[in-house]
Automatic annotation (TrEMBL):
Domain of life according to the entry: Archaea
InterPro entries reported in the protein's UniProt record: Polyketide_cyclase/dehydratase, START-like_dom_sf
Pfam families recorded: Polyketide_cyc2
Protein name according to UniProt: SRPBCC domain-containing protein
Organism in which the protein naturally occurs: Haloferax marinisediminis
PANTHER family cross-referenced by the UniProt entry: CHROMOSOME 9, WHOLE GENOME SHOTGUN SEQUENCE, SRPBCC DOMAIN-CONTAINING PROTEIN
Amino acid sequence: MSGESRRGMISTSVRGTRRPVSVVLRSLFFARVARTEGMQEIRTEIEIDAPPATVWTELTDLSSYSEWNPHIPDASGTLEVGESLDILVRRAGVKDRSMTVTVTALDPGKRFEWVGKLLSPRVFEGRHTMVLEPVGEEKTRLINRERITGVFARFVTTAEPERDYEAMNRALKERVEQTARASVS
């Protein structure tokens, strides 16, 4: 190879194989991203003074989210595995974001999960799971968590992401307990 045609080339192996610098830099960048792409898990929980069936009814009534849910004030669609939901995510200090997510798990009375992606899971994937655990006969523990992965994971969360999930948990607790008290009266 002449000196002119070797310009912009770099040796990439012990055998001295030469490749364009741009190809080497691209492969190094993507290898680094693959190793360091963020994974963030947000996990919150709260105990609600109502049985799981009562909490489940409110949590899965997507049409009522606008009445009580400060984190996801709008949600519509069919809550069945494989179905799409349209949601509006509201986070403190950040512009609201509309997303279409896919329901990936549904265990009535116990758990549901949806996944939202941007292009591919390597770019961005948010897996939001809500689990209901009985605590005695008349209490429920809500575990509200999201696993965020991909290259853009660190850019889509706020400095204190738990705050939004905790606000949702408190609002659900208040609504369910208020409804439970009203039905007893």
